[in-house]
């Protein structure tokens, strides 16, 4: 099987995931890209911030909206190391993110192609394009190792 190099935004999301891991947080990272440039990057920080909403995706979306001075990110893409949960999928919808790229699926907590399938609901206000699998092995291994070391 030919292995292609990961796109820069997914490598950046995986670097963010490693920062989360090194800080003792669940290793998930995200970046927001606009016109080919990363405008925001974040990693999970619920423990550090004592904030259950401090997921990588939410923090990256907040930073991107602040950087652009607007709440709508309809010309932006989100790259994330793990399939977004329902909360993060809701934030993606409200931010009007154009495309979501995620590395590893999350059959238990994901809500894009698993579980709630937020973007497929009739009541969903916005449906981004979704692409998955780039960097899946790297992201999945980082998560497996993180949880194995804590058991």
Description:
This protein has 151 residues and is of the alpha/beta class. 38% of the residues lie in helices and 20% in strands. The chain has 5 helices and 5 strands; from the N terminus they run αββααβαββα. It has helices at residues 8-22, 46-49, 56-68, 86-95, 136-150; strands spanning 29-34, 37-43, 76-82, 99-104, 129-132. Strands 2-1-3-4-5 form a 5-stranded mixed sheet. α1 (8-22) runs parallel beside α5 and α3 (56-68) runs parallel beside α4. The longest helix is centred in the N-terminal third of the chain and has 15 residues, at 8-22. The radius of gyration is 14 Å and the shape is globular. The mean pLDDT is 96.
Short note summarizing the structure:
With 151 residues, this protein is α/β, with parallel strands linked by helices. The protein contains five helices and five strands.
Provide the fold topology:
Blueprint: H1 8-22, E1 29-34, E2 37-43, H2 46-49, H3 56-68, E3 76-82, H4 86-95, E4 99-104, E5 129-132, H5 136-150
Parallel strand pairs: 3-4, 4-5
Antiparallel strand pairs: 1-2, 1-3
Helix pairs in contact: 1-5, 3-4
Rg for CA atoms: 14 Å
- Element pattern in H and E: HEEHHEHEEH
In terms of structural class, how would the helical and strand content be classed?
alpha/beta
What percentage of the residues does DSSP assign to strands (E)? 15-25%
The oligomeric state is single chain
Major β-sheet strand ordering: 2-1-3-4-5
* E-strand count: 5
Instruction: Give the CA-based shape.
Output: globular
Termini, distance in Å?
33 Å
Q: Poorly predicted ranges (pLDDT <50, ≥5 residues)?
A: none
Helix % is 25-40%
* Major sheet attributes: 5 strands, mixed
Total of DSSP H or I helical runs spanning 4+ residues: 5
If you average the pLDDT, what whole number results?
96
